[in-house]
Amino acid sequence: MATYRIRHCERLSGEISIHAAKNAVLPLMCASLLTKEPVTIERVPELTDVHTLLEILSDCGVSVRRDGDRNAPDSTLTLWAEEPQSPTSGDLLSRMRASVLVMGPLLARTGYARVALPGGCAIGQRPIDLHLKGMEALGAQVQLTPGSVTLQGTLRGGSVYLDFPSVGATENIILAAALARGTTRIENAAKEPEIVDLCTFLNEMGAAISGAGTGAIVIEGREALHGCVYRPIPDRIEAGTILCASAMTEGSVLLRGVRPDHMRALLFKLSETGVTLRESPAGLRLSGRASQPVQVRTLAYPGFPTDMQAPMMALALRLRGTSVFLETVFENRFMHAREMARLGAGIRIEDRIALVNGGRVLSGTDVTSTDLRGGAAMMLAGLAAEGETVLHDPCGHIARGYEDLPSMLNHLGAHITVEGFPEG
Ligand code: UD1
Predict the structure, then answer these.
(1) Which of 146, 330, 409, 418 has the fewest other C-beta atoms within 10 Å?
(2) pLDDT digit string (tens) for 209-222?
(3) Is 60 a catalytic residue?
(4) Residue nearest to atom 8 of ligand 1 (CA)
(5) Model-level pTM?
(6) What is the pLDDT at residue 123?
(7) E-strand spans in 102-261?
(8) Which residues line ligand 1 (CB under 6 A)?
(9) CA nearest 99: which of 1, 172, 154, 34?
């Protein structure tokens, strides 16, 4: 249970480095199940989701070594899956959605996987039908029981069409197909940078994957993969969250170690608000005044990321006029709007559309973190509110996906104090 006390902030300024991407690191950690050799991942961020997945992997028989100071930005993780097995603890898996990514590698490596149905943020139904459709296309027998799923079989290549370009399903199928006999083709695959990162990593382990970053990914199965040392991509959502915070406060912030090419949709939308964005070898700088309202439609990559919808809505609270948000990826992802209204925001929700009447004076009060990105958005909203905002995060949502977001914002001039344990 953590409580964040956020004081009104006039202006953020300064420079900051961005951590490695949570959504890249988690699938890489699961990929370690595919080889009996050690796999080393560099710059692993200090996140609750990383810790939970480490517990799950340990439960799967994976040896874990974490080098360096756990709180150092360059902490290195070595995972060694000599003889992996299915996890025994369903409770751990039900804590996080990405835990389902142990399914594909375990099945491919051992011919058997039994996993509890995954948890994570309650931002929608979040079924795993597309994951299972992929495993069946590779020849797995799937048996669903209440609360868990069992898969078995020797995998062979197959063709899969995804009805939606699901990030997790694309990753799980790639992971399974890497050790399947023959060629697998995924049509309407997700194109997110984290998918490309996973495929680059797997190719370094000896896999043969082409087409990553396009809608058609081809995987030539290999008999075995080997270990490697890898540095994941920077976190485009953490970077985007800091940019929104800066834009809200008419700040001038330089982000170091980012990939602006992974953030085009967001950068276009930020420019539409009136801020200036400048890319240079030193990094990505945002400055100037955000004033114009925006229209945002969340989509699969390269569209506007659903994970940035809540932080962008926090920014919209400052934009004079009506901003429009259409959430097309998850059906229940406006929970933060209710909390923003407690600060005095004018937001109307109609099904998957949120109309944000920006420019109102916001006043600090007690609010609650509803989910990971919604919680971060409330921290941003607190910067804009007059007086003090007390953000309660009873489930530790924010620390699941941000490595010490309050410290990052404080480094840029915010005043946020933390009481209790961020990890919930
Ligand atoms: C990943 C990200 C998450 C991000 C999301 C969308 C990780 C660890 N998490 O989540 O931060 O918000 O992508 O960019 O990378 N769906 C189905 N059936 C399935 C799978 C998904 O219907 O089998 C639906 C979901 O309910 C949702 C949509 O597809 O409506 C997108 O989900 P998906 O892309 O799978 O998201 P995740 O991989 O869970």
Answers:
(1) 146
(2) 999 999 999 999 99
(3) no
(4) 23
(5) 0.96
(6) 46
(7) 112-116, 141-145, 148-152, 159-161, 183-187, 208-210, 216-220, 229-230, 252-256
(8) 23, 26, 97-98, 124-131, 164, 166-169, 194, 305-307, 329-330
(9) 172
